[in-house]
Design goal:
Layout: E1 4-14, H1 20-25, E2 27-36, H2 40-45, H3 54-67, H4 73-87, E3 93-100, E4 112-119
Helix pairs in contact: 3-4
Length: 122
Amino acid sequence: MGDRILIHRLAVFAHHGVLEEESRLGQRFYLSLEASLDLRAAGRTDDIAATVSYADLAALATDIATGRRFRLIEALAETIAAEALARFPALTAITVRVDKPGAPVPAILDGVAVEITRSRHG
């Protein structure tokens, strides 16, 4: 099945990182979600109860990213994926991407990112 709900580059200001300055000062992160689920019933009935609200997905990701502190963006992505699958039974899988444009690395780059995919079946 190729049905998906996509949220692109949801901006949040949060305090994640290994360095003490990152936790103290904070920085911008971008969250992208690709939620897999069957959207046929929602498309046929035009009923929000037959889908997962993208507003609810965005709120969940925002709450996790701004309400908790993670040293690693891998842990942030993992938590968002796990909690989305737990909260929304209609999801069969979710891909979470966390972009960190202000990563403190000694290189000239636009940023770093991690992307994970988790499903109910492994």
